[in-house]
């Protein structure tokens, strides 16, 4: 492998793989289920909302919008936990896709999905705790600043001490800004770093800091390029998928059967409404198979009701597949970016290190299999 930007350009093609899209699909499906359950709880504990009302308003995926929906703090907390769990599940999914990408780059085309998922779960601690650790550090610094502000209210002594410490306070504030930047970078790189050779939380944090410090402009520009690839890939794949759905709708209704029109209409009804944000509505209208507000439910018999439910569920799966390609492109891009930047900054061949690690692991597994358990073959005779 030649380590250069040319490898990063390959991200959309590398990502177009059934394995990677399937892993991204599973991550989206599990993440959305966890998020939706907690968000339903956040709504339903309020007296003015019931599960039935939440369903009628949002369908499967409720999205409370600040300023439009007025939640108490405990509902926002539950919703925030759902968002955090969704993000962490996606990080595990991206880590698994990165592992598959590394294995394919070093020639292992038969690396299995379950092996990648097990590996990502094994490295979950290093992957997830990296941004959490940074968030804790940021919170501690902010708390210290607030305590200093409170100390400054002490008559005479407080203002003098704060004035003398002002330079240190300003430098600490600048350091917090730096930590915030690294915090966001950790969400980009940590899954791919954790999917490489053996890393603990400290190693993942160190790699985030060193990559940002030593390859700043390459990292920024290449991340922008990968973001464009993700947007373009989802746009094109979504547009083609929408046309395919419209073709399927036309074929099934070609003989003028009104039953399919009702099923199709009610299948679209199951899709969640788009948040009332102008650019989101404009984008969705281009690639989504439904209108912004969706159609009204029409009465059907029980067989058509089952069919409508299956169509609605199938539309969600198709949407997850399209978004899964975007996540796969993002994960493959982060893997390629990290592999190339590690070569630039440390002159290390990441793929070779992964291969050596795999050989060591295979040797350890063989050694464990060959070990003869103690007392094997010993027959214990009872005096009775």
Q: What would you note in describing this structure?
A:
- The protein has one domain.
- Helix 5 (73-105) crosses helix 14 and helix 11 (216-252) runs antiparallel to helix 14.
- With 384 residues, it is mainly α.
- It has helices spanning 5-9, 11-15, 18-44, 51-58, 73-105, 113-122, 124-151, 157-164, 166-194, 201-214, 216-252, 258-269, 278-287, 302-346, 350-370.
- The chain is built from 15 helices and no strands.
Average pLDDT for all residues? 86
User: What does the overall shape look like?
Assistant: globular
| Computed CA radius of gyration, to the nearest angstrom | 26 Å
| Beta content | under 5%
Low-confidence stretches: 378-382
- Largest beta-sheet details: none
Please count the beta strands (DSSP E, at least 2 residues each): 0
Taking the alpha carbons of the first and last residues, their distance comes to 69 Å
SSE order, as H and E? HHHHHHHHHHHHHHH
Question: What helical percentage do the residues reach?
Answer: over 70%
Assembly category: single chain
Question: What class do helices, strands and sheet pairing give?
Answer: mainly alpha
Total number of helical segments? 15
Domains, number: 1
Lay out the secondary structure:
Elements: H1 5-9, H2 11-15, H3 18-44, H4 51-58, H5 73-105, H6 113-122, H7 124-151, H8 157-164, H9 166-194, H10 201-214, H11 216-252, H12 258-269, H13 278-287, H14 302-346, H15 350-370
Helix pairs in contact: 3-5, 3-14, 5-6, 5-9, 5-14, 7-9, 7-10, 9-10, 9-14, 11-14, 12-14
């Amino acid at each position: 492998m030649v380590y250069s930007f040319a490898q990063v350009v390959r991200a959309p093609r590398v990502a177009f793989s059934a394995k990677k899209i399937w892993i991204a699909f599973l991550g989206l499906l599990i993440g959305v289920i966890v998020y939706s359950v907690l968000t339903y709880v956040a709504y339903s504990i309020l007296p003015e909302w019931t599960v039935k009302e939440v369903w009628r308003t949002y369908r499967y995926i409720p999205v409370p919008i600040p300023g439009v929906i007025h939640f108490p703090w405990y509902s926002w907390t539950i919703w925030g936990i759902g968002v955090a769990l969704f993000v962490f599940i996606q990080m595990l999914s991206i880590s698994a896709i990165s592992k598959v990408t590394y294995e394919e780059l070093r020639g292992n085309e038969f690396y299995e999905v379950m092996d990648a998922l097990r590996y990502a779960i094994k490295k979950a601690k290093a992957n997830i705790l990296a941004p959490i650790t940074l968030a804790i550090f940021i919170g501690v610094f902010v708390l210290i600043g607030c305590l200093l502000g409170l100390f400054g209210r002490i008559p005479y002594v407080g203002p003098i001490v704060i004035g003398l410490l002002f330079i240190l306070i300003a430098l600490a504030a600048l350091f917090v800004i730096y930590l915030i930047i690294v915090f966001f970078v950790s969400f980009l790189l940590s899954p791919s770093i954790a999917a490489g050779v053996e890393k603990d939380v400290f190693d993942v944090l160190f790699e985030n800091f060193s990559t940002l410090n030593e390859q700043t402009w390459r990292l920024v520009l290449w991340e922008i390029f990968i973001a464009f690839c993700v947007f373009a890939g989802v746009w094109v794949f979504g547009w083609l998928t929408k046309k395919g759905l419209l073709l399927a709708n036309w074929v099934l209704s070609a003989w003028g059967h009104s039953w399919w029109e009702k099923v199709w209409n009610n299948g679209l009804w199951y899709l969640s409404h788009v948040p009332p944000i102008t650019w989101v509505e404009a984008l969705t209208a281009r690639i989504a198979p439904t209108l912004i507000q969706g159609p009204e439910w029409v009465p059907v018999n029980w067989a058509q009701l089952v069919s409508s439910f299956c169509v609605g569920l199938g539309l969600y799966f198709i949407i997850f597949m399209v978004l899964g390609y975007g996540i796969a492109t993002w994960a493959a891009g982060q893997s390629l970016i990290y592999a190339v930047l590690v070569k630039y900054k440390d002159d290390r061949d990441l793929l070779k290190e992964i291969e050596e690690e795999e050989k060591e692991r295979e040797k350890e597994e063989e050694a464990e299999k060959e070990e003869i358990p103690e007392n094997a073959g010993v027959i214990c005779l009872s005096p009775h």
